[in-house]
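Allow me, if you will, to draw on your knowledge of protein folds for a short while. I have a record of one protein: its chain in single-letter code and its fold written as discrete structure tokens. Could you please explain, in whatever detail you think fit, how the structure tokens follow from the sequence? The record follows directly beneath this note:
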Amino acid sequence: MTSRFYTNKKKFLSIILTSILLGLTLFFIQSTPTRSENSSDLVPTIFVHGFKGGPMSFGKMIDRFQDSNWGSKRMVVYVRANGELSVRGGIPHNMNPMIQVLFENNRASLQSQTLWMQKVMSTLYEKHGIEKANLVGHSMGGLASASFLMNNQQEGFPVIQKLAVIASPFEGIEKQEYFKNNNGPATEDLRPGSEALNYLFQHKEDFDQNVQVLAIAGVVNPNDLEKNYWDGLVHTSSVQSLSKIVPFGSYQEHLVYGKAATHSGLHEHPEVDHMLGEFLWNIKSQP
């Protein structure tokens, strides 16, 4: 009788342990980020900060988009100074997933950022099944995004459908005080007439004609009699010069006026939010 009791007890414990292990296995299977079942239908939007930028550069904007139910932040890709990637999150099938790219070395050259963008996009394509994407870049992040588009001819990258740049200086920054107070390889590339900027214009034929482009610029001095408009750092004409690179019919621009339309304030501006919502996801709303 005692032997039968212990035998039944062992069977009972075995059943319980098996059930627990099965439950844990199912939990981890469901919790582990996987490739989307319909990855070809997904079009994540990838946000790239500018010179000296970081998590807050687009962090609040992404939060606002989530609060408005325009999409959800699903992934952060951290690019270390040596080019190694650290990826947090995954891309399950849901509406308008958003991805934030962060550069540890946020003063790096445009060439380095372009190579890092290639690595980021290759990883998203090969390991996360992302076949299509949109790009949003602020300031130098817009330059890096455009440069990536001119250097992604080989296979192994998502197809970029839309590019939005905010206050990106395609003809450089003319404010000399800026270069006295900032340093790093990026500052050489951000000067008017730099080799890195000239490269973009000289190789404009490499820009994908199927990418729809929106350029957003700020005007804090709308009453300037000489119409030398700028956002306090980047002149409007420098942002608008992207039109000389993008194929005809693929480019549109939007100017934001007022004291709040500063270089660092544009990615916190409600008008910019609504312009991006309409451009990226066809969401029509009033700022």
User: Anything to note?
Assistant: The chain has two domains: 1-32, 40-281.
